[in-house]
Amino acid sequence: MADLFNRVLAQAVSDIAQHGFDSAERLTYWIKRLRQAAVASLIPEAILHARLSDMLRSLYRRNIDSGGLLERHPGIGRFTVDKVAPQLRAELDRRVMASANLIKLNRDRAIEQTLQRFSGWASSVPTGGSKAADKRETRTEIRKSLSQLPFEERRVLIDQGQKFTAALSETLALGGNAIAGIWHSRFRQAGYNYREDHKERDGNLYIVRGNWAMERGLMKLAGAQYMDEITKPGEEVFCRCSYQFVYALRDLPDAMRTKKGREALSAARIVSGAGARHDSAVHA
Known about the structure:
The chain starts with a helix and ends with a helix. 60% of the residues lie in helices and 5% in strands. The protein folds into two domains: 1-176, no CATH class; 179-284, no CATH class. Mean pLDDT is 89; it is low at 272-282. Strands 3-2-1-4 form a four-stranded mixed sheet, covered by helices on one side. It has eleven helices and four strands, in the order H-H-H-H-H-H-H-E-H-E-H-E-E-H-H. It is mainly alpha-helical and 284 residues long.
């Protein structure tokens, strides 16, 4: 299919180089032909959408149905997954739709940029044509956006997969009453174009606003930030960061525990050591 666009582009460049910008009709004709050839040269949207949907549904099955995500959420069981199942399914449907729209927008933009490059070049060629025009270089420059599109579409699929996994993890964490999250940057990963501010967040603890431990007066910010005060992992384009969620008071730095929290934690340890089961022991 790419051969079709290249063939039409070669014809268009040769025609304009020979005749120049001698009429709006000539330019309109070639823009129409190039648009048709560009659309025909790409993988049909229906096929790409099916690939995208299959990829996201496969991630869902691996992370949720098969319990893969639970390995990153110690203490969270199937009960919590079942409880937030409607939100998890809604996130899948939302992500499929959003990703399909993004791919369409990227395609439309690539085609329009290609046509704009052609139009800009063609309208600069004087009437009567130009023997000085470098046709090969012109074709290469004009089709640049379209040539890069398959690579960009693969990146979009990967990025949307990362965003989806991060959203599933957050939904599961909030459903399981997480109180905080430790930011993990992938800045050490070879070839990863990380954001400097995300690197600076690495290892920092961010607090779930209104969590159960704060409502009970067991913990305090102690200089930390709430999660809703910064961007989420995967929220920004091509971000590979993630949260390691914290559920128990005992896993917080001591400075974040209030006096009441320390007392509750101490009491929970005593109760737990006695072999009794108690709600505070579970949460602490």
